[in-house]
């Protein structure tokens, strides 16, 4: 059974930082593309970032590169999202997702990912 468990969310002031973690089990993590998505109230789910098997390729949603950094540790079956200079508009539930396959040109698209975590709430106060 595949499990993706996110952690690290919480309440932070604008300008602050958070580091999200996603621990994976039940899948071959080292050959899974990993992604982070987020969904704010009343909005559609959007991609935050994705990372290839060995981390050689990382892509980000619009306007997030430079503030957010995705990374992975295949020895720990864990993917991370470092979020800096947080803004109130970053408030959302953040989801970890896994694509147990090779990199996709549609890396930004939710249907490309087979497995999803339950999400962790990130709230940024102004």
Helix proportion of residues, in percent? under 10%
Distance from first to last alpha carbon: 40 Å
Query: What does the average pLDDT come to?
Result: 96
Order of helices and strands: EEEEEEEEEEE
Low-confidence stretches: none
How many H/I helical runs? 0
Description of the molecule:
It is a single chain. With 126 residues, this protein is mainly beta. The strands form two sheets. Strands 2, 4, 5, 6, 9, 10 and 11 form a seven-stranded mixed β-sheet that branches. The N and C termini lie far apart (40 Å). The mean pLDDT is 96.
Descriptive tags:
single chain; 126 residues; mainly beta; seven-stranded mixed β-sheet; four-stranded antiparallel β-sheet; globular
